[in-house]
Specification:
146 residues, four-stranded antiparallel beta sheet, alpha+beta, Immunoglobulin-like
Length: 146
C-alpha cells in the first residue's frame, strides 16, 4: 500500500511540474528544413540571382554592393531576412551600426540583398551581412571597403 501511495504522489508531482513548465511557454515553437549556403559578396547578380564578380573588398565609389546566397530545402513561406552592419573603420564614433535591413518570403533558390552607394561614398572599414531564416540567425558574411 505504501508503494502505491508513493507512486501516486510521484505521478501527481511530475504532472504538476509538467503543467507548470508548459504553462510558462509562450509563442510558437518553429522548425524549418531551410538552410542558406554559398553566401557571396559580389559586384552583381545574374538573371538567376547567382553572384557575378565575387569580391570581399569594395572601393569607396562602388555603385552597389550585393550579397547572394542559396536557399535550400525551403517551404514557400520561409522568411529570409538580412541586416547590413558597419562593424568599424574610419567612422570612429560608430561601431556595430545597423545600416539597413532586408527581407523576403519564398522557397528554395538563389536570393540577394544589396545596398546602393551612399551620397558621400562608402565609409572605409569592416562590414558584414547577417542572414536570418524565420528569425533565427543562419550565417554572416564579412566584407570591407578600402
Amino acid at each position: 500500500m505504501r508503494k502505491v501511495a508513493f507512486l501516486v504522489v510521484v505521478i501527481i508531482a511530475v504532472s504538476l511540474l509538467l503543467a507548470v513548465t508548459l504553462a510558462g511557454c509562450e509563442g510558437e515553437v518553429s522548425f524549418t528544413t531551410a538552410s542558406l549556403s554559398e553566401a557571396t559578396m559580389c559586384q552583381g547578380v545574374d538573371e538567376n540571382w547567382k553572384p557575378v564578380d565575387a569580391v570581399d573588398v569594395f572601393a569607396v565609389d562602388t555603385p552597389e554592393i550585393f550579397c547572394s546566397a542559396k536557399l535550400s530545402h525551403a517551404p514557400d513561406d520561409t522568411e529570409v531576412s538580412a541586416e547590413w552592419i558597419y562593424i568599424e573603420g574610419e567612422m570612429e564614433d560608430l561601431s556595430n551600426y545597423l545600416i539597413d535591413t532586408w527581407s523576403t518570403t519564398g522557397g528554395s533558390g538563389y536570393l540577394y540583398a544589396s545596398l546602393t552607394h551612399p551620397d558621400n561614398g562608402w565609409p572605409k572599414g569592416d562590414y558584414q551581412v547577417v542572414f536570418y531564416i524565420d528569425g533565427k540567425e543562419e550565417l554572416s558574411v564579412p566584407f570591407s571597403v578600402r
